Predict the structure.
Amino acid sequence: TGQMNKYHKWEETSPYLRAILEGTGRFSVDIHTMPPFGSDLSKWDARFEDYAVVLMNVDGDSWPEATRRRFEGLVRSGRVGLSVVHSADNAWKEWGDWNEMIAVGGWGGRDASAGPYLRWRDGQVVRDEKPGPCGGHGARQPFVVIHRTPDHPVLKGLPVTWLHHEDELYNCLRGPAKKVEVLGTAWSDPANKGTGEHEPMLMAVRFGEGRVFHTTLGHDVEAMRCAGFQCTLQRGT
Ligand code: ZN
């Protein structure tokens, strides 16, 4: 964490995310804060290899090539898991492997060249290659999340549909979308700047031997108060 745009208060959400994970009794969490925007990152070292999983609550400066390579290698080999929360999928358009890890992302200068949209239509995931924007959401409001793989370990035993607390419903995310399993979706309401599509909310991604959990939910602490957000984040991570 440590770098995000002004709409995302990492100083508030990162301690809250730590509390969500540590509340299970299964995690011991360190918060690693990147230096401020514009800092020289050549000597920066987050010691990713010391952890079983890295949760990204960051959207900031490009990492040095060596740092990227090391991180990619750790995730690809399965040595370090990756959990991606909300606007972390806005980060690093220019980093190809990052985009493979998150499967789809938005904003940050992305356009149709980022890859297809992922939509749930007629009981299956559709890769939609049509041109259009990359990243959007309406006003924060409650919405229903629908589990599409209810037997997946992240979701097994949970209610298949649940009402999420008020949050941004991301739409029009695009990316390489390789080896991605869409676990949960939400319907993006055209009356709230939505697409009329079932958009991916919860995803599991394979990256080499590595495993990634990506939740588009969690704009702020208020959204993170939702039990559905917390439970799926705990299990996914
Ligand atoms: Zn947001």
Remarks:
- Strands lie at 53-56, 81-85, 117-121, 124-128, 141-147, 161-167, 180-187, 198-207, 210-215.
